[in-house]
Amino acid sequence: MAEIHRLNGYLGSIYHLFPATDESELFSVLVHHPIDLILINGEPGDLWDGVQTCSLLKSMPAFAHLPIILLVRANNPETRVGYLESGADAFMEKPYSRDYLRVQIRNLLANRRRIHNHLNRALPVNLPAVRGAGTKSAFLVRLNSFICEHLSDPGLDVDGLARLMNISLPTLYRKVKSVSDTTPNELINSVRLDKAAELLAFGGYKVFQVAKMVGFNSRSNFGRAFNRQFGVTPKEYQQTA
Asked: CATH code at 231?
């Protein structure tokens, strides 16, 4: 808990953090929230073996693309090699500085963005344009988070989204119109399909599996919707990525 408190002090003003105290909580966070990077505190012999957890995540197609930083005690060169062999993108020996941790995270996220940008240049993604910043952008991020949490539910619609956000349907339409050149229903489909593209590119799943994971009951409907947004079929996108 002390490490979580320290990390919150170092990073809480910059990033949205989802703390987990064991493997079970970690996988719950990964399933229910859009995660860009994982920090693991723990070493061999601890109750939560961080190295083994890292190896497990890197062996799972759904999470292998996520950058992982191991926070470890200073050790000998052989042990350091073991940290990297676990699949970790980086490891930091304690005590580590706040600034060094921030730079390491920023660099890993920048590298991941470059990969996505490369794919997007090959197969353009039609994301909704955001007007303004500040509270407007924050609303769109919150909206996106609610959609991601219920992505696999084929019944998620505009009415359900309004209920989840505890606002009226007219308010939802008005707010979405103020921040985006799209409707709430188009936004739901866009988030579904963007996640589908990510899973197809990095997840190692079959097309029908991805369709179910993002809330499509019909593979043919999924294929048509994907083709409208990306200009290629899911299979073509997967092969190119």
From this structure: 1.10.10.60
Q: Which of 70-79, 118-127, 200-209 has the highest mean pLDDT?
A: 200-209
Residues linked to residue 73 through DSSP beta bridges, in sequence order: 94
| Verdict on whether the full-model pTM lies above 0.90 | no
pLDDT category at 121 given cuts 50, 70, 90 is very low
- Read off the pLDDT band of 124 (50, 70, 90): very low
Helices (H), the chain: 2-11, 23-32, 50-58, 77-85, 98-122, 135-149, 158-164, 169-179, 184-198, 207-213, 219-230, 234-240
The two beta strands, 90-94 and 38-41, are: unpaired
Last-in-domain residue among 94, 122, 150: 122
Return d(Cα 142, Cα 216) in angstroms, integer: 23
DSSP code for 188:
H
- Do residues 93 and 215 lie in contact, with contact meaning Cβ atoms separated by under 8 Å? no
Do 144 and 110 share a domain, yes or no? no
One domain, residues 7 and 106? yes
- Is residue 100 over pLDDT 50? yes
Query: What is the 8-class DSSP label of residue 95?
Result: S
Domain with 225, as residue range(s), is 135-240
Domain count, the chain: 2
Kindly state the average pLDDT of the residues 167-180: 84
What is the rounded distance in angstroms from the CA atom of residue 233 to the CA atom of residue 231? 7
